[in-house]
Amino acid sequence: MTALELWGGIECTVNRTRTGYSDQIMLSGHHDRETDLDLFAGLGLKAIRYPVLWERTMPERGGEPDWRWADVRLQGLRDRNIRPIVGLTHHGSGPAYTSLLDDDFAPGLARYAAKVAQRYGWIRDWTPVNEPLTTARFSALYGHWYPHHQDEASFWRALINQVDGVRLAMKAIRRVIPGARLIQTDDLGRTYSTLKLAEQAMHDNLRRWAGWDLLFGKVTRHHPLWSRIARAGLGERLKQIADDPSPPDVVGVNHYLTSDRFLDHRIQRYPRSTHGGNGELSYADTEAIRVLEPAPAGLSGALHEAWQRYRVPLALTEVHNGCTREEQLRWAADAWDTATALRSQDVEIEAVTAWSLLGSHGWNTLLTKPGAYEPGVFDVADDAPRPTALAGLWKGLPLGAARHPVAAASGWWKRSDRILHRPIARPAKILRTDLQVGVQPLLICGATGTLGQAFERVCAMRGIACVVTSRRDLDLERVKSVNEALDTVQPWAVVNAAGWVRVDDAEGQEDACRRANAQGAITLAQACAARRIGYLGFSSDMVFDGVLGRAYVENDEPNPLNVYGRSKAEMEQACQPIPGVLIVRTAAFFSHWDSHNFAWEVTRALDKRQKFAAANDHIVSPTFVPDLVQASLDLLIDGAEGIWHLANAGAVSWADFAKQIAVACGFDKGLIEPVPGSSLNWRAHRPLMAALTTERGSSLRPLEEAIQEFAEKANVVGSLKCSA
Q: Is the pTM value of this prediction over 0.70?
């Protein structure tokens, strides 16, 4: 890696509220002070986040851009050997003739981006939209900024429009500047909570990645947010983005001491100013650093998580603390030291950004009305910029220079007096796991599958550090790829949630199915055993022929009837003797986390008042994925080995399962059409009686309870209520 760079940035938000536009560039006086560039150059900045904002440059529909201000400033930066990182919108919604909810927002931004690139073809680094997720929240979910909407559908539309704005803008820029880099910024914090608010915290911790996940092409039908976004009428937009993503070249992490949040349903413990809710539950929302003991992982945790998720270079793109000067110094030094430490662990951090070079105005009111001024590296309260102690610190950090004596003390976020409320020993559920220094992770194979994503989700809930790999990161069919991944991650155990799942397709592709389900799994299990790390793999009820006449237990002899079952049986036979290997047999997944399963197929058909055919002569033990993952993790942690059966207690035909789903979700179960399995055009022969039970422990909770939770959590409401 090259040396850690010092970048800078000026607070340049131009946002709309009910009273008009607020322009931070005007408020700081930078609009009229070209001499500020000399001050920035004196800090030794290698690059600067700099505005050429749509609202300022091209405010009139159909008008020509006014380049006069940008021409002078950008050439001035070039003359001073400071690379501009050009921003086109910064918490903005565009000029008055568009908005975040306007269908023309993204194409309009792309047209403007093309003009900027043609004017400044020498600029390499670009941030077309600053913090799209944060801007969507403040503008369309919380209603603080224009267009002042407060509903989830508007929030998702605002986010998608900004993501499309980034994609289309970068296409336009790269047509002019092929090597242009996308540096995509957003705030990154975690939400912690009491157990009662675990679902809300889990949603927050999924949502925080949404902007980057979209740009990386991760939001496919298997992504846990796909269905939620699609319900806002954005399904086709999601497909377009997934098919033609625009992965950032650098992930710009903005993390503040207020970024990590704690949600507590015991609102009487907290000031009224913290009280809020989600429409169903009331809760206090406060800074996690002010209540959790021990403190959350904060900046280090955010950077670790971003690195593990995307594996592209990172930059700390905003480092600022609105506090007393010594605390500002401590926070800046802490950020630089954190980045340096992580780089020594091979986390690619390109730069740390001295943000708010000229301070900021009105963030204490969230820019909704005039507010307080916070000094930055320079204090412009008296118009003429005055260097603060931060100027000397930032200039000296890349050089290893001596720091101001007060910077040596611990910041308040590291002291006991950080606690302002009744301390919480630890949140009931930590809903996203930081890969902290010294914490050995769990490795999960199968990033895009139902099971792999479920394991990642539950690990986040349980505070289990994990690394999730796709086939690109760990190819089970290549021994070298397996060994390299294990040696790089050095996990304490591996969950193999990858493999072939298309039972009928396997009949025509036996070799491919065997390579995925048998040979690849065996290779991985053997590699784990060689390193003395645990291994968890999954098998199926289809290893049995269904003629036993009762539910199968672990010691019953497999006799598969189809290609898929034979691949799993082959895997079992080879893996079972390997020390440290745990194989879980399970069946018939259903879950509210993933819409690609039998239960969702039933609800989609019944919601349209369509009949749904289901086999009445094939008996199975349906398995609720959240229950399966929780129990499997317990076994893995306990060091269990050999074959275990995990399925929800109960045995039903597919037709009866469909009827129970219908009743629980409020649909007409009369639309379920029981038919022989032979009429369903299955290519693969399936066992008639494949129910699972166990002799090694307890079954999962009763199927009826799991179905009820599915109905509640899936938020499916039938168009015709009926009795059981």
A: no
